[in-house]
Amino acid sequence: MSLHGLDALARAIGEAAIVADPAQLAARRHDYWALSHLRDHVGRPAPVPGVLVRPTGVAQVQEVVRFAAERRVALIPFGLGSGVVGGVIASPDAILLDLSELKRVRFIDATNLMAGFDAGHNGLAAEEAVAAQGLTIGHWPQSVAVSSVGGWVATRASGQLSTGYGNIEDILHTVEAVLPNGELVTLGKGPRASAGPDLRQLMLGSEGALGVITGVVVSLRRQPEAKAFSCFEAPDMRTGFELQREIVQRGWRPPVMRQYDARESRRQDGDATGCLLLMAHEGPAGLVAAETAAVRDLAAAAAAPERPGEIVARWFSHRNVVPSWDTLLSRGLVVDTVEVSAGWTDIGAVYDDAVAALKGIDGLIAGSAHSSHVYRSGLNLYFTFAVQTTDPDQMEPAYLEGWRRILDATARHGGSISHHHGIGRVRRDWLAGEIGPSGVALLRKIKSALDPQGIMNPGVLIPDA
To answer: What is the pTM of this model?
Structure first.
């Protein structure tokens, strides 16, 4: 961008909002996508952004969007950088819009059980703010301490307690966003509305391609009266899947329901020989007592013996502690996780096919899965693959091959290629199989209507024409 352009931008939003520090520019080159870190590791890093802008208010965001629209300059929204599917890759020809200083708690309403936050507000800080009043958002992604509430909406996120509390679309009350022409919209009013199509859905999962989310209002719950843990060991994955189906279809909703295959179960507990099923129960004391008793009876009927609840407690205490991509890459390990979902009649085949397909990758040292989000109609699977290679030229092909085999196996059995991390760039080429050519065409029409110049986060979500 020309110096004249930067001067005009500085006049519009103030010089303090334009960041020139090289270290900060370098830190915003990309988000937490494993492939971006891999490319850094092998000497093919993403470029620094042409301009880094850090607004402190919604009016400044509007000015930046108008500036970009008038000059047809690409604009890349950046929350707190926790995305893992390539939603952010900087460009020297683009403005990177860093929303981390939009971090106010706007309000907490304990009567109507709602809380409003700036979109850049840290997720864990938001939870702590409402917890101080005896409330909870109930949204606990693994990235809760490093993600933003706006990022939750933009990626259509899910939390580790989703089986009981719901996903972000179940928690979202109102979303405020700046459209690609600079106009501000506020979408969502009342506990429920029948006022035409729900326009909040345009921002849910939009990944910065349809506008800039600037504010979020979430529905809250009271902190639970009682909590309990349950743990069982199924002889195999399909038996565990069937037990989970029985639990949820009978009306029980433990907020945490996680089932690990035999390999991952041994990481949870060294004595495990089968597939561990971990559950956490929360709510009124009477409900927790009834649910734990009912689950125990269902597990006994499924020949899944009970294991110590301490296994679940141990998972809770370590659930967000994982090695960084850079640590793994320094050891010659190409690793990632891929979350998908499918119905009860298909999930076993998805698991078997994907794990078998991963075994065909040269250098594979681990290919496993667990489930972590359960519904009446099915559940998700969270695959992990690890490939050992010391050849820098083989790292990216191995990474992409792991993804390809898992997503192809999922698609073969009618599953969904993404459960809660979004599309980004890594899944983009599979989207037509997910929503069909007509669905992709419809998405392009929506994009064109809202963003006719194509300035908003180009390259994500929508497959190339």
So the answer is: 0.96
